[in-house]
Amino acid sequence: MQDGVSAGGIISQLVGNFSQALLAAFSVHYLNKGVVHLNSFRAIVVFTLGAIIFAPVVVSTIAAYLYVLSGWEQNYWYAWRARILSNALSTLMIVPPIILLFSPGATTKATSVKPQRSCRSWRALIFLVLTSSVSFGKEVEELLGVACPIILPLPVLLWSASRFGLQGLCFSTVLVAYFAFASTAAGHGFFAMSSPAENVLSVQFYLIVTTLPLMLLAGLIQEREDKEQTLRESEARYRALVMASAEMVWRANAWGEGFFVNPSWQQLTGQNENEMRDFGWLQAVHPDDRERTRRLWERAMIEKHTYENELRVRTRDGSHRHFYVHAVPILAPDGSLHEWVGANIDITERKQAEQALQDLVAGTGVIGEEFFPAYVRHVAAALDVHCASVAEVTDEQNARLRTLAVWVGQRCEKTMSMK
Q: Is the pLDDT of residue 185 over 60?
C-alpha cells in the first residue's frame, strides 16, 4: 500500500467497524426491547451504554491487537484509546440525527416549525459561532496571549439542548467540533499543547464528556414534554367526553370544592360557576336533603371513601328532580387525597315509577298470588285498554314467556306459556 497500511490493517479496520455496528445495534435493540427511539431518558441511557461505551470498548480491545499484529500500529494502548474515542465520538454525532430523522412524526415536526422557534434557532446559531470562534480561534489567543476557556460554548449548548432537544444539540455539537478540530489542526487553541495525535484525542475526549450529559438532559426534557403533551391530550379528551355526556360529570379538589362541572348543571339549576364554588351548589339541593348531603360529603372527605347519595335538586322553574350522586376519591402516590371525580345521574323517572308502583300496591290492597290479577286490572283501568298482561321470561335461550296474569275485557284469563 502506498500509505504504508498493510492489507491486514485495512481488513481488520473494516471487520472491526462492521462488528462494532452489529454489536451496538444488537445491544441497543435488545435492551430497548424493540424499535430504537431517542425520545426518553431511558432510551438515551441505553444508547449511551450500548452504542457509545460497550460496543467501542469491546471491539476496540480486539481491533487494536489486530492493528499491532498487522504492523499498522506499534503501541497497543494508543491504538486502543484512539479507536475507542474516535468511534464513540462518531457514533455520538452521526447516529442520533439519523435515528431522529427516521423516527415517527419527524416530517410533521419539521414542517410545523413556528417562526418564533426559527428565530430562536438563528440566535442560537449566531451565539454558538461567536463563542466557538472566541474559544478556539487564534485571533483572541494572539490578542490575550493565552488560550481562551473552552467552556464558553457550553451555555449555548445547554440552551440548545433545553430549547431544541436532541436535534438542536446534535447540530450544535457538530458545529463546535468543527471549530475545535480546525483550530487544533492549525496549532491554535487550548488543545494544541502536545503532539498532533494526542491533541486529537484530547479534542475527542472533550467533545464526548461535554455532549453526553447534555444529551441525557435533552432526553429528560423531551420525556417531560411528551408526558405533558399526553396529559394535555388526555384532559382534552376527558373534557370533550364530559361536554358530550348526558350526565353531569364534575371534579372537586381535596377540600370538596368543585372546580369543573359540565354545563348541564348550570342549564338545570341556573347557577353560574361562581355560585357553585365554596359549597354554593348546596343551595340548589332540596332543603330536606341539604344537611344529610353535607354530612355524607364531609364524612367521605375525611375517610377518603366513595361518596354515594340520592338527593333532590331544584331546577330553573322551581320544581325538583331526583339525582343519584356517585363520586370516587383520586389518591396521590403518597396516599393523600388529590381530587374527586363524580357524576350526577338523573333518576327522576325511576323514582316516579317506584312511587307509582307503591301507589298501585297500596291501591290493590292484596299480596301474594292475587297481586298480579289485581295489578293488570288496575293497569287496564288506568290506561283505559281492553287487554293487559304481566309475563316473565322462563327460558331466555328459547325466548319463552309465562304470563302471570291476563286481563281481557272484564275478567282475568288463565295464565299460559308462549314462545
A: yes
